[in-house]
Amino acid sequence: MLIALFYFSIATFWLGACTEEGRNEMGKSGENMGNSVSREAQRVADSIEIKRKEAAADLERERKELGDRIERGLDNVDRKLAEADANIKKASAKEKERWRERRKDLEAWKNDLENDMKELKSDTKREWKDFKLALADRLDKMEKKLEE
Hints:
- It is built from three helices and no strands.
- The radius of gyration is 37 Å and the shape is rod-shaped.
- Helix content is 93%, strand content 0%.
- The chain is mainly alpha-helical.
């Protein structure tokens, strides 16, 4: 019985000391882990902010490029409208009709481009990718038609 009491005393003393030491170590470890998690969270937040700024810059660059392309298209259409007007004045009756039809097409393209420019300058309601692709396709088709 004495031996059992002796072992019980040693076990109690040893577990108490170990627990206190363990608590101190766990506290330090938890603190280090918390600092590590905080640093990692800050690194991720910084990375997200950098990517957000890059995406905003890319979007602004694309908007400017599309705006410049629309402006070039409008200038081209205006030149073709002036050409059509000049041809209407000097053309035969049959040719006048053809030039008037061409002028209607040019006016429609001009209106479309002006509407696209308005949408580009505002916050587009459509998805940016859809808007950009549709506009590029329309500009390509218009430029090919104007070359004819």
